[in-house]
Amino acid sequence: MRPRTRTLQATLTLAVAGVLAAGMTVALAPAASAGTTLRASAAEKGRYFGAAVATGKLSTSAYTTVLNREFNSVTAENEMKWDATEPSQGRFSYTGGDRLVSHAQANGMGVRGHALLWHQQQPSWAQGLSGSALRSAAINHVTQVATHYRGKVYAWDVVNEAFADGGSGGRRDSNLQRTGNDWIEAAFRAARAADPGAKLCYNDYNTDGINAKSTGIYNMVRDFKSRGVPIDCVGFQSHLGTTLAGDYQANLQRFADLGVDVQITELDVMTGSNQANIYGAVTRACLAISRCTSITVWGVRDCDSWRGSDNALLFDCNGNKKAAYTSVLNALNAGGTSTPPPTSTPPPPTSTPPPTSPPPGTGGCSASVSLNTWSGGFVATVKVTAGANGTRGWTVSVALPGGSAVTNAWSATAAGSTGTVGFTNVDYNGQLAAGQVTEFGFQGTGAAPGATPTCTAS
Ligand code: G3I
What we know:
Oligomer: single chain
Number of helices: 12
Bound molecules: ligand G3I
């Protein structure tokens, strides 16, 4: 997306002056504890300060010197997108993304996953699908990629840019949208099943203030929270022009008040006399909100940016710090509520670990299933609860209606695909203490199973 400036600029130029003025007062106040790099200062405030990375540049030392010194989070600029990770259907390629994860782990950085589903950068085979075939392929993509990176990313952009620009506040037309309005929640449920430890985000642009588009997203998040759809965070891309909306912070706050984290995910700002001020104001807005957990700039040096001659980043093409850098660092050092610092590795999945000594077993088990269905397919999440003596292993039998078939499973091994299908634990989730719970999932075509599954423990 090109940065959108016309509408917002026209309406909000006046309002921003007050925000920037107020913010500059804060920035000039003595720093309580002054970090000397963005990553150190952000960590002191319990936040990530990240950059989008093109993994091809990781072999350029001038690039990695700045990246490793200044940032404690990375986002793959392109390498975790659908066209990169599933270039032909069912054939997954993680080379670029894995390289970035390794770099992050070696340098004490977290990883933001970007992006599981988006109407752009789809592989050509997916662009040619529609209806239930596309829905099924999309959910399978979410499941496979989120499973591959399970435990390695602290947040995922599960769905990117699904809302329309302009005043409608509604969804953007796309092949994904045409599979049914529930495609977003289906994606979030599949992502949660695949990686229960990652924060699941909806991410969009032109949402940098209270406007029709951000309000449409706000209403979706409120609806998801009320119905238990697993959403944890909202990403505000913040590709900005020469002004900042006066209600930028208020907009973040209203989302945080819904009970989700907020993250600045793709920040870059048009060059010019206001660039440093805007960078500082965005940083202060995030720090003022305890649930604003990360700021990511969309590239390292100006010449790395998708915005080319806008010179929109914090470092010039030689890696020198710009005034915008100093503005951000001062803002990080000056203010913000403190939340627990991010760990250098992402939090582990929430599923409980196996007990240290094997349980006696044969105590039985029970299973319950929750379903996300659509015309022609479904995703099932199955909860397995160990009985009084715990389990050494378990098998859950699920009866499928005629014509239905299991297409893939996670955190369990499926025996067969039609009729009554047995799902057996994998190596890390078979041993359960009495009352301990674990989850697995599977995806299928056709009608969803209706009967309660049976669980057999060993
Ligand atoms: O890798 C190929 C190269 O082999 C080929 O020679 C060249 C010819 O054009 O293209 C290269 O791929 C380009 C790719 O970036 C890597 O440089 C694509 O054409 C180009 O479309 C792609 O642009 C990316 C864009 O998303 C795609 O929409 C930008 O790098 C990336 O910064 C940008 O990021 C998006 C976020 O994901 C979502 N929000 C908006 C943001 C900016 O558009």
